[in-house]
Design goal:
elongated, 3 helices, 0% strand, 78% helix, mainly alpha
Length: 114
């Protein structure tokens, strides 16, 4: 079986806290799949374990496929959000500057209260 490996793009989409959590979940799932593959390869088992092993391999393959789809979906959504943000900023530069300044003031006030 082939292991799932991420390319350089997996970290490119992370930046916000939610993306960090998703990236951690994706990495944890990939590690679990890799460890399960290693376990399957190291435990040959007997004839009685063959049906269980085949079922587990099938489930593992489905999980890997679903994980890759999830990763591709997350990357596509991130790209769309980045493109929409870029288009909004280009179309409304002064609104964007005002919004950024307002957010900066709010964060400044929150930090100074501590």
């Amino acid at each position: 079986m082939n292991s799932i490996h991420t390319g350089g793009n997996s970290g490119a989409a992370s930046g916000a806290g939610g993306n960090d959590a998703r990236d951690k979940l994706m990495n944890d799932m990939k590690n679990i799949i890799h460890e399960a593959e290693d376990w399957l390869n190291s435990n040959a088992g007997g004839e009685e374990a063959l049906p269980l092993k085949e079922k587990f391999e099938s489930t593992l393959k489905t999980t890997k496929t679903d994980l890759l789809k999830l990763q591709a979906d997350m990357l596509a959504k991130t790209r769309l959000a980045a493109q929409a943000t870029d288009a909004y900023v280009k179309d409304n530069p002064w609104k964007s500057i005002g919004l950024g300044a307002a957010i900066g003031v709010v964060f400044g006030l929150l930090i100074s209260r501590k």
